[in-house]
Amino acid sequence: MRQHVNPLSQFFQLPLLLPSKNVLFNKSHYPIHLDIGSAKGEFLFELATKYPDWNFLGLEIREPLVTLCEKKRKTLKLSNLKFLFCNVNVSLDKWLSDLDYGQLRRVSIQFPDPWFKRKHFKRRVLNTNLIKSIAKSMSNEGEIFIQTDIFKLIEAMTNTMDKSRYFNRKDIGAMRYIDKNPYNVMTDRELFSLKKNLPIYRAIYMRNSLLFID
């Protein structure tokens, strides 16, 4: 399976109409945790099992991974979990706008494709438009969790978050990045990085309740 796909290619620029929360979840009023770039889904499988009073949605641009995750989800009979194929920067805004205000409580973006070359920076998933879409639907207590094992990428991600003004970085005192995953559930990439003794850079941002978005 390809490790990277170009999100700006014509195929991935076609907007998809994502199923509503009422179609996705049996108990659609539960708070939602959205995982962008869910990959093999192990992170969400564990969370959905531990927290049955939450709904979890994994979005992934590599469709074969979504197919595999959905097959496993059905085997596990997890009704509070769903995986969807889409390009979030094309298809997510409409889905978010249909949520009840404040229902989106958590968003995680973990080890996204780094796209190292400067000419490819525009392919990176986290941008101002995505942050604004999330902020419009998120409660004042909502949070975005980001992590990567690439220092230049976390610098770019935090710079983008800071400039957006929709979220405030959680104060951790003198430390620049948090040293622990707040959910105590790890992705495959996180486990791999720890095994290789690679540094992992993490940050949490809280919704800026003072900033109104029209």
Notes on the protein architecture:
It is a single chain. The chain is of the alpha/beta class and 214 residues long. It has a single domain (25-207), classed as Rossmann fold (3-Layer(aba) Sandwich), CATH 3.40.50. 32% of the residues lie in helices and 21% in strands. The protein has helices spanning 21-24, 42-50, 63-76, 88-97, 128-137, 151-164, 188-195; strands at residues 32-36, 55-60, 81-85, 104-110, 138-148, 167-169, 201-207. Strands 3-2-1-4-5-7-6 form a seven-stranded mixed sheet, sandwiched between helices. Helix 2 links the parallel strand 1 (32-36) and strand 2. It is globular and about 45 Å long. The protein starts with 20 loop residues before the first helix and ends in a 7-residue tail after the last strand. The model has no long low-confidence stretch (mean pLDDT 92).
CATH class: Alpha Beta
Report low-confidence residues grouped into runs of 5 or more: none
Largest sheet, order of strands side by side? 3-2-1-4-5-7-6
Helix content: 25-40%
Give the helices and strands as they follow along the chain.
HEHEHEHEHEHEHE
User: What would the CATH topology be?
Assistant: Rossmann fold
Residue-averaged pLDDT = 92
Task: Please give the alpha-carbon distance between the first and last residues.
Answer: 41 Å
How much strand?
Answer: 15-25%
Radius of gyration over C-alpha positions, nearest whole angstrom: 16 Å
CATH superfamily: Vaccinia Virus protein VP39
Supply the number of structural domains: 1
Oligomer: single chain
Architecture (CATH level 2) name: 3-Layer(aba) Sandwich
Shape: globular
Name the structural class.
alpha/beta
Major sheet description? 7 strands, mixed
Summed up, the helix count is: 7
| Strand tally | 7
